[in-house]
Amino acid sequence: MNTQIDFLGIQAFIAIVEHGSFQLAATELHLSQTAISHRMRKLEESLGVRLVARTTRGVALTDAGRALLPRARSAVHELALSCETVRKHGQNAVDWLAFACLPTVAAGIMTPLLQACRTQWPDTPVRVFDSSIPEITELVESRTAAFGITVLQTGRAELAVERIADEPFVLVCAAGHRLARAAAKPVRWADLQDEPLIRISLPSGNSMTIDDALGPLRDQLRWRYEAQHNGMALDMVRGGLGLTVVPRLSVPADAGLCALAIEAPAVTRTLCVVTRRDAVLDARDAWVRDRAVALVRERLAQGANAALA
Predict the structure, then answer these.
(1) 3-state secondary structure of 78
(2) Buried/exposed code over 216-253 (b: 16+ C-beta within 10 A; e: otherwise)
């Protein structure tokens, strides 16, 4: 899904909410009141919902506005942190081995990868950007990261893309669950209609991958809980609250969890490594990239149905 982010509209939205006034928000952003109203209107039109309503006492958030506000604040905060990271990186970039990796992939490969880096170059500092898909693209394009391990997306002219492997999504349940006891065969989505399921939040690319694969079947499932991150969803599974569906590499080797293959339909994502087309990796960066790719393939080859002990 190619969604354009209206950053100026998001900035205006946050300022209006925080000041409780279009006029005060305009003053903070050095805009006219007409300009900030225009930004707000464009954002609402792009989303197809009202976010704020003017009242005699100022402005009030709609239900959609209340849902968007914490995510908008978090996104702006993360962007500010990313800019600061890039600034600091630029000051001593030559001293660091820097690369990017999706958090759900890093969970399965990062410890052995960094151990291998320490063995090869014990005095070299390493900077790992465990970032989202768009952030990884930007980090590689800006040369902040030498390469990125991410999910295959539509092409960017500046990037060279090498496919690594197809990663299946797995059902994660507690080790004592009835499905874990029958782990010799894959689980069908139809088997889950009466199970409480834990969903990863809607902005996650993984949730959209699942929705696209399931089609109308997704509305027949009991999405009882929603978590922001895989780690929280897995903690909820450990606590017996339900089952979740996540990429295989994101499931830790953890007593009490069992990862099961799912079919009918199967859900997969394609992992790839991205570099700049005009970049020639030095021997160190190329070695780390190749070791990361090898670890991904090794972990995926271990099998989908084993209980994780």
Answers:
(1) helix
(2) eebeebeeeeebeebebbbebbeeebbbbbbbbbbbee
Asked if pLDDT for residue 32 goes beyond 70, the answer is: yes
Highest mean pLDDT out of 83-87, 174-178, 205-209, 254-258: 174-178
Please report the domains of the chain, with CATH numbers, ordered by start residue. 7-80 (1.10.10.10), 92-164+270-303 (3.40.190.10), 168-268 (3.40.190.10)
Q: Could you give the angle at which helices 230-238 and 103-120 cross, rounded to 10 degrees? A: 100
Tokens encoding 18: 């925080």
Which tens digit of pLDDT belongs to each residue from 58-89?
888 999 989 999 988 888 887 777 776 666 65
- Gyration radius of the chain's alpha carbons: 22
Cβ atoms of 100 and 135 within 8 Å: the answer is: yes
Quick one: pLDDT band at residue 184, thresholds 50, 70, 90?
low
Token pair recorded at residue 299: 């972990």
Question: What is the 8-class DSSP label of residue 216?
Answer: G
Q: Tokens 């029958």 label which residue? A: 182
Looking up tokens 């900030």 gives 36
- Tens-place pLDDT, residues 211-263: 888 888 888 899 899 998 888 999 999 999 999 999 999 998 776 899 999 98
Buried b (16+ CB within 10 A) or exposed e, 21-59: bbebbbeebebeeeebbebbeebbeeeeeebbeeeeeeb
Could you tell me which residues come within 8 angstroms of residue 134 by beta carbon, excluding any fewer than 6 positions away?
none
Q: How confident is the model at residue 304 (pLDDT cuts 50, 70, 90)?
A: very low
